[in-house]
Specification:
This protein has helices at residues 12-18, 28-34, 45-53, 58-75, 98-105, and strands spanning 3-5, 21-24, 40-44, 80-84, 110-114, 118-120, 123-126, 135-138, 144-147. The chain is an alpha/beta fold and 148 residues long. A 6-stranded parallel sheet has the order 1-9-2-5-4-3.
């Protein structure tokens, strides 16, 4: 189900109509040179989420990640959001399915995420296979648009 685009042939209107999560497999500012997107908030998730979580004792942070994440993204009052620095979400203790979370969020507004790993063939990878934060997602299992 995952659709592959380049920064040159990406169809913003089609993605909006289909309410599809957009995974940017390059630096977001390079993508934005080619596609002007009005009413866009850029969220530095690593910074914002770490600030929110530091308010909780270590033993409660795992249970507060989802709440803090939801609050951060809800504060963006724009039609489109771009989320960068997602690395914090790959913490194995959080046990999040990152793609599913952002796919669900995309039902209400257009969401772009800057992928912090690699696209290898039809798989998104984060980290390296022997590390505890390693994740691999077959894009055919998700309703997403990837821009490479």
């Amino acid at each position: 189900m995952g659709e592959l685009y380049t920064k040159y042939n990406f169809d913003l209107n089609l993605v909006k109509r289909n309410k599809t999560l957009v995974v940017i497999c390059m630096k977001y500012d390079e993508f934005l040179k080619y596609k002007e997107i009005k009413d866009l908030s850029i969220i530095n998730l690593g910074l914002d989420l770490s600030r929110g979580l530091k308010e909780y004792p270590m033993e409660f942070r795992n249970s507060k990640v989802f709440d803090e994440l939801t609050n951060i993204l809800a504060r963006a009052q724009t039609e489109h959001i771009l989320v960068k620095n997602l690395d914090i979400l790959f913490n194995p203790e959080y046990k999040l399915n990152i793609l599913n979370y952002f796919i669900n969020l995309s039902r209400n507004r257009l969401v772009f995420i800057e992928w912090p790993g690699q696209l290898k063939g039809r798989e998104l990878e984060y980290s390296e296979i022997n590390y505890p934060d390693y994740h691999k997602y077959n894009i055919d299992n998700y309703n997403i648009a990837l821009v490479k």
